[in-house]
Amino acid sequence: MDYGKAIKIVRTIAGLQQKDLAELTGVDASLISLFEKGKRRPGLSTLEKITKTLDVPQHLFTLLAAEPEDLKGTSAEDVQRASESLARILLTNAQKPRKSRTTRRSRKKAA
Domain coordinates of the chain in residue numbers? Predict the structure, then answer.
């Protein structure tokens, strides 16, 4: 399983930077970077925080993290059905309006 790949894909579709995801989940941005680079593996509680924050069911997030060897023994029909579900959820979430984020720099200018 490559959870770092899944984090990066879903985070990018959600339009978030690593620091944004870090703020929303309470997970350090450097740790998110390490997950995405494959240098660390997230624990179950961290995965739960990330999937809840990104509004992606854990079982579909796990499918996104799956490598070809992880799917051996799974029927093509099951993989197709799960893939379609995942695509629907990701596309729905990508179309949700995002709250406007102010950068630190623009907040300093406003002060």
Answer: 3-110
| DSSP letter (8 states) at residue 71 | G
**C-alpha to C-alpha distance for 16 and 21, rounded to whole angstroms:** 6
| Residue 35 burial by Cβ neighbours in a 10 Å radius (0-12, 13-18, 19+) | buried
Rg (CA), the chain: 16
CA distances to 7, 15, 16 from 97, in Å: 20, 10, 13
Q: Kindly write down the DSSP assignment for every residue of 5-28, as one continuous string.
A: HHHHHHHHHTT--HHHHHHHHT--
pLDDT in tens, 24-40: 999 999 999 999 999 99
- Of the candidates 110, 74, 98, the one whose C-alpha atom is nearest the C-alpha of residue 14 is 98
CATH class of the structural domain 3-110: mainly alpha
pTM for this entry: 0.68
